[in-house]
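Supplementary notes for students who missed Thursday's class. We covered one full example, reproduced here. Read the sequence, then the structure, then the short commentary at the end.
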Amino acid sequence: MTLNFKNLFAAGCCALLAGSASASIVTVEVNGTGVDYRAARADALKEALFRVTGVSVSVDEVSHLSLDTSSTTENGESSRKTDISKSQRQVLQEKAGGYIDSYDELDRSKGADGLTNVRFRVSVYRYDMPGMNDTRRSISVLGIDSPAGACFNSKLEGDKISEALTQALMNALQTTRKFAVLDRGSAGLEAEKAFILQEAAGREEAKLGQARGADYVVSGKVGGFRAVESSRTIKLTGDKLTSRSASLDAQLNLMLLASRQVKFARKVHVKLADAEIRGLSCNQILDRLSERAAAQMVAPALLSIYPPIVTSVSGDTFTVNYGEGDIAPGSVYGVYSTGDKIYDPYTKESLGRIETLAGKAKAIDVKPKYTVFKLTEGKAEVLRPGVIVRPLASETRKASAPAKPKQSLKSKMDDAW
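Structure (token representation):
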């Protein structure tokens, strides 16, 4: 791709003048391990960038950094501060929307396995959004991988499939209003390049990057995308009947960035029949499949991370903070009372609280932003603001199981002929 750096630089300057913004240096302590010091250092710097910006760069990007090291002594203790060269800042800024300013080496040792271990205190520039007071958890969609797909008689590149699914996931997450969705778009990246080449100050570069660390990252792999056309001939009349169908399979994961733990994973399979794709182009079919796949991932993931919470109570009816698109009218949910926190005995990680099923409730009125439930089992005394509700798997299966369609007369006659 050819970049018009002069125009992009002008656009970058306009962005800076459009409003006040601040860039802060975020300092994190990280460990790194490698076969030698260079590899261990690269591992640690990669981890620091990933923690602050939410973007993973390859080890190669940080393994050949040009460095300027200075030693200082304070209170009898010496330390080494290492600054990153301007050209290498550019590489990291392009990759991550933020960059490493410098780092201090806190510890270096050789393990019994022969590997080098280091601990660094790393300073990373991060953009702080002006006027932002957003306490929502942040999330980004990164690394959706896909092979090439087939759309009738043409090939659809894997990058195009990845881009469509990524955008659909971002849109679905945005509409939940529960996450601050981070956009790693190409326009911001191009503006960064333009401004960096003009040797802007580090803090101004970080402004243009608009990088904000992500709490969660959605990643995954597309198993396959294809749209096919099939035909059959009616023996009696010789008429040729043509039908089309399309499908998309993917494995999607939601990871908590701080601990690198996968909090939610789902295999999604979407299939569209002839009536749903008739007259659509390959791109339109891909977009529709991606939207359906994103919905299959986002809705249950959201309920897992943010279960609906009772906001108000009136007798045996109550409201929760989810509405249209998340809760279906007539669906049955369990009402749970919560107890003590429980912890993993090995990692000491909080596993949440003990939940006890205290009743069942049915959605009787679904509004755009909230839902009214009526208690169908259990005592109204268990209802109070803060109590959580979750969909009951058995009830959901009953409600979602489609009735077996009756075969039409025309279909029976076609089969007979």
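Commentary. The chain has eleven helices and 18 strands. The first helix runs from residue 5 to 17. If anything here is unclear, bring it to office hours.
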